[in-house]
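Summary of Year 1 activities. Much of the first year was spent building the evaluation harness for sequence design. The harness presents a backbone, in tokenized form, and records the residue chosen at every position. We chose the following record to illustrate the format because it has been used consistently in internal testing since the harness was completed.
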């Protein structure tokens, strides 16, 4: 009996060990499954890039925009004229304030009592003779004038600088006043051709008015016809007399 009981006990113990071993293995497998890393998700399918039209090319590949155009000579001249006018206005205002401080009354500047002052040094170069010469020849021929007379006037009036503006507002090569330019149909007083042709026509009219008296016509061109008419001859204005003498001397008269 004793051996049989011992054998039964050994068999029961063996079964218990096997059961415990099975449970331990099952627990180990379950724990391993919980801690094992999940396999990475399958990558999304990559779509093949669609061909784009040539017009939608990247901005980086586009050609750079061209630089802005440089100002034209006309625009530069107008800017220089505006700058001169502003400087003249500032000078006039400063003179007026100084006169008020000193208790001095300044008479209005009118062509009837005062000639056009010498032009303010313009911010442009003299016009090339190759440009001026044919215009002078044509204008002189049209008005039956001597080309050298027109050239002498232009030299004295503006120094051949098309952008010249006087303190009184006379403009261009022959220093035409705005009202004179308007009467003669000048669209752009700073245009070489328009200014010379109008100046020649104006001078011809003065010569006709004063019956060919060149000195008197020049004085009227400088100081204004009203000043010459009031004076009954060349106005007693030093600048006007110097103007007339210089041009007549230039012409050898």
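For this record, the design step produced the sequence shown next.
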């Amino acid at each position: 009996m004793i051996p049989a009981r011992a054998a039964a006990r050994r068999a029961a113990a063996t079964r218990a060990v096997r059961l415990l071993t099975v449970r331990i293995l099952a627990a180990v497998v379950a724990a391993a499954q919980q801690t094992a890393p999940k396999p990475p998700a399958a990558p999304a399918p990559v779509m093949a890039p669609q061909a784009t039209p040539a017009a939608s090319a990247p901005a980086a590949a586009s050609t750079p925009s061209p630089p802005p155009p440089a100002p034209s000579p006309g625009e530069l001249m107008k800017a220089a004229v505006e700058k001169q006018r502003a400087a003249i206005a500032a000078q006039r205002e400063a003179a007026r304030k100084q006169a008020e401080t000193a208790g001095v009354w300044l008479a209005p500047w009118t062509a009837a009592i005062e000639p056009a002052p010498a032009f303010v040094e313009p911010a442009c170069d003299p016009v090339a003779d190759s440009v001026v010469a044919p215009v002078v020849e044509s204008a002189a021929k049209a008005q039956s004038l001597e080309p050298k007379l027109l050239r002498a006037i232009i030299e004295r009036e503006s120094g051949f600088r098309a952008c010249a503006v006087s303190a009184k507002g006379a403009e261009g090569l022959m220093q035409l006043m705005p009202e004179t330019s308007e009467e003669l149909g000048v669209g752009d007083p700073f245009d070489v051709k328009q200014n010379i042709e109008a100046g020649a026509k104006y001078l011809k009219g003065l010569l006709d008015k004063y019956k060919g008296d060149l000195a008197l016509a020049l004085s009227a061109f400088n100081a204004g016809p009203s000043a010459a008419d009031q004076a009954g001859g060349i106005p007693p204005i030093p600048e006007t007399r110097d103007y007339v003498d210089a041009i007549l001397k230039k012409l050898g008269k």
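The chain has a mean pLDDT of 77. Quantitative recovery figures across the full test set are reported in Table 2.
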